[in-house]
User: Which sequence fits this backbone?
């Protein structure tokens, strides 16, 4: 039975690398995979999933108005799909998460979604909230804080390294804008306004 999986973490834990490795493992065995990435994440170019260590693959960019169930149903009509992968899953809408659940339940295609759990303010992203609620399996991808503890939180900084407390929930970026911390050090940094 196909399942909906959600692998979540903070920034710089290697989620995209894991996604690309898993897709490669299917393809190496002659199985077809389909990759999706949020259209607003154009750091590697529109329609590209790319990891910080240099791995990359073509992907279908998704927008909030896209019906992912309809897309995968049409792609399945062209040939079997062994697995569907979604990078930057925090940017999915609630409806899109339910569409992906239907892909697993009705099209029998496993769906592996990878994304952030919380934003820089410690709030759940809508896509992540719905995935945490309905995914069949949850997997935490771990990364560490500078102190060696598990990092579960992230702060957003400006170009001078000053911690930002306000702003849009969605602002695409990498190490230039975000730093991962354990909850204790996130709380310290939020209160002092200085990222370490």
Assistant:
């Amino acid at each position: 039975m196909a399942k909906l999986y959600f692998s979540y973490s903070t920034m710089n834990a290697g989620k995209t690398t894991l996604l690309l490795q898993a897709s490669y493992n299917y393809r190496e065995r002659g199985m077809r995979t389909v990759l999706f990435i949020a259209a607003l994440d154009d750091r590697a170019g529109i329609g590209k999933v790319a990891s910080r260590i240099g791995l990359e693959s073509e992907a279908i960019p998704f927008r909030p108005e896209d019906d992912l169930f309809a897309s995968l149903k049409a792609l399945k009509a062209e040939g079997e799909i062994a697995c569907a992968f979604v990078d930057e899953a925090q940017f999915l809408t609630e409806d899109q998460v339910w569409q992906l659940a239907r892909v697993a339940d009705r099209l029998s295609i496993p769906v592996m979604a990878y994304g952030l759990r919380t934003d820089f303010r410690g709030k759940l992203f809508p896509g992540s909230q719905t995935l945490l609620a309905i995914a069949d399996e949850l997997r935490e991808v771990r990364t560490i804080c500078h102190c060696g503890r598990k990092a579960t939180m992230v702060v957003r900084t400006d170009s001078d390294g000053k911690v930002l407390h306000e702003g849009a929930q969605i602002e695409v970026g990498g190490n230039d804008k975000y730093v991962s911390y354990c909850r204790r050090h996130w709380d310290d940094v939020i209160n002092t306004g200085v990222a370490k």
Q: What stands out?
A: The radius of gyration is 17 Å. The helical segments are 15-28, 68-77, 94-107, 126-134, 183-192.
